[in-house]
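Sample A.
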Amino acid sequence: MNKKKNFGKKLFIKNRLVILNEDTFEEIFSFRLTLMNVFVVFSLGGIFLILITTYIIAFTPLRELIPGYSSSQLKRNAMQLAIKSDSLTNSLKKNEAYIKSIQKVLNGELDYAKFNKDSILAETEEIQKVDMKPSEEELKLREKVEEIEKETRKKTQNKNKIDKK
C-alpha cells in the first residue's frame, strides 16, 4: 500500500528539464515536467503514430502490398473480362446453332421452308436453358476457396493485432 502511495506521489512531483550550452553554461531551454506529463505525451504520440500509419495504409495504394487486399483496378478488370467472356459465350452458342441449322439444310435433314431466323433463335434459347446449378466438384472448390480466404483474413487480423501491440 505504501509503495502505491509513493509511486502516485512520484508521478506528480515536478522536475525541471534544462538544456545548457556546454561551453558557457548558459541556459538555452528549460521545462517543468512531471512523470505523468511525460507518460501522457508519449502515450498520445504513440496513438497518433498508430492512427497516421493506419490511415496511410488504408487510404493509399500501399494497401495493395498487404496480403488479402486486392487492387481496385484488378477487380475492375476481372469484372470486365467476366462480362466479355459471357457475351462471347452467348455469341458462340448462337453461331454454333446457326451452323448446325445450315448443316441440317445442306444434309437434307431440314426442309428449306422450315429454316428461318426464328428456328435458329429457338435452338439458341434451348441451348441457353442449360442447367446452371453448380456441380458437387464446384461446390467443393468454392468451400476450399472460402476456407483459404478465412485463413488469410485470420492471419492478417492476427498480424494486425501483433503490430498494434
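Sample B.
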Amino acid sequence: MDVSLGPVTDEDLPMFQRFAVEPGLVGLDWGGFRDAQAPVKRFAEDGYLGKDDGRMMVRTSDGTAGFVSYLSGTFDGKTQYWEIGIALLPEYRGRGIGWRAQALLTEYLFLHTPVHRIQAATHPENVAEQKSLEKAGFRLEGVIRGCEFRDGKLRDGYLYSRLRDDPAPEVGNGSATAL
C-alpha cells in the first residue's frame, strides 16, 4: 500500500469542513458541531503548517484518505514533545493506511525537529487505533483517567509514545513532505 503525506491544499478544505459538521464522520472523536469556516480561516493563516501545530494530508494511489495532525506539548516547560493524531474517511479505514501514515508522520517529525518523544492518545474502545499505533512503533504507557468529556461524561484514554531511539517500523513505499 502506497501512502504519502503532504501539505494541505485548497482542494482539501471541503473535507475539513465535513469533519466539522458531520456527526460520526470522525467516529468516537465527534465533539459536537464546529464552525465550518474555521478550516478555511486556518488554511489562510499558515496552510496548516504552524510552528506549534499543524496537519498534513494522507494520500494513497486511489485518493485522499484523511489527515494527520501534530501538536506541541511539554511536561516540564522546557522539553518539547509532539502529540499526533489521525482522522481517516470511513472508506479508507481498515486498509493499513492509518498505521503507515502515523509512522511516516513520526519519522518526519524526528527528521525535522529535535524532539525525543512523540505521543498519541486514543479511546479504550478503539481497538483498531491501538493496534495501528503499536504497528507504527508506539508503546502503551498507561491509562489517563477521566481525561476527556465525550457523550455526556468524563472518559478514560490510553496514552502511547514512541521515543527517537525506539525501533521504527518498516512502512514499505511511503513518503512525507512539508513542515
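B remarks: Strands lie at 3-6, 53-60, 63-74, 80-88, 117-122, 139-150, 153-163, 174-176. Residues 3-9+48-176 form a domain with the Aminopeptidase fold (CATH 3.40.630.30).
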